[in-house]
C-alpha cells in the first residue's frame, strides 16, 4: 500500500494501541476479527480512540442456517462465514447482530452505517435472522 501513498499499520490489536495518538487514523478496520480478540470491548474503545471511524465486520452467529444446525442437529454450526469446527475455531466470542447493536447502544457508540450480507447479496430485513455477516461503520463512544 505504501506504493500508492497510503500508510498502513499491522499488529496485534489485543496488545493494545497505546503507541498511537488519538484520532491518528481516518479508519481502523476490524475485518472478520472482532469475534476473535480477547477483550472486544477494550479493543473497540481503543480503536475508536485511535481512529476517526472504525469499520467492524463479523459473522452473525444468529444466522438462520447456524440456528438450524444447532437446533436440528445439535451441533456447533459450520457455515461459509463460520467455516471451523468447534475444536479449531479462532472465534472466542459468539455474537449476533442484535448483540452488537445493543452493545453499541449501551456504550454510546454511534453506528454511522450498517450493511448486512448473506449468500452473496444484501439483506435488508430480518437481519439478525437472515444476514450471514454484519458490517458496521462506527464513531464516538464513551
CATH arch. level architecture: 3-Layer(aba) Sandwich
How many β-strands, per DSSP? 5
**Class by SSE composition:** alpha+beta
CATH superfamily (homologous) name? Vaccinia Virus protein VP39
User: With helices defined by DSSP (H or I, 4 residues minimum), what is the helix count?
Assistant: 4
- The overall average pLDDT, rounded, is 91
Q: In order across it, which strands form the biggest sheet?
A: 1-2-5-3-4
Number of domains: 1
* Proportion of beta-strand residues: 25-35%
Structure description:
Helices cover 25% and strands 25% of the residues. By secondary structure, it is of the alpha+beta class. It has one domain (23-140): Rossmann fold (3-Layer(aba) Sandwich). Strands 1-2-5-3-4 form a five-stranded mixed beta sheet, covered by helices on one side. Strand 1 (25-31), helix 1 and strand 2 form a beta-alpha-beta unit. The mean pLDDT is 91.
Short description:
The protein has helices at 40-50, 64-73, 97-106, 127-130; strands spanning 25-31, 51-59, 109-118, 121-122, 133-140. It is α+β, with helices and mostly antiparallel strands and 142 residues long.
Amino acid at each position: 500500500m505504501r506504493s500508492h501513498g497510503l500508510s498502513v499499520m499491522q499488529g496485534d490489536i489485543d496488545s493494545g494501541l497505546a503507541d498511537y495518538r488519538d484520532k491518528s487514523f481516518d479508519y481502523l478496520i476490524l475485518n472478520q476479527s472482532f469475534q476473535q480478540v480477547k477483550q472486544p470491548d477494550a479493543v473497540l474503545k481503543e480503536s475508536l480512540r485511535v481512529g476517526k471511524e472504525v469499520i467492524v465486520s463479523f459473522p452473525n452467529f444468529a444466522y438462520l442456517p447456524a440456528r438450524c444446525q444447532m437446533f436440528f442437529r445439535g451441533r456447533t454450526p459450520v457455515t461459509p462465514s463460520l467455516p471451523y469446527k468447534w475444536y479449531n475455531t479462532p472465534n472466542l466470542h459468539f455474537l449476533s447482530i442484535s448483540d452488537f447493536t445493543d452493545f453499541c447502544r449501551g456504550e454510546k457508540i454511534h453506528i454511522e452505517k450498517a450493511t448486512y450480507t448473506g449468500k452473496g447479496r444484501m439483506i435488508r430485513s430480518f437481519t439478525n435472522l437472515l444476514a450471514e455477516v454484519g458490517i458496521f461503520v462506527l464513531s464516538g463512544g464513551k
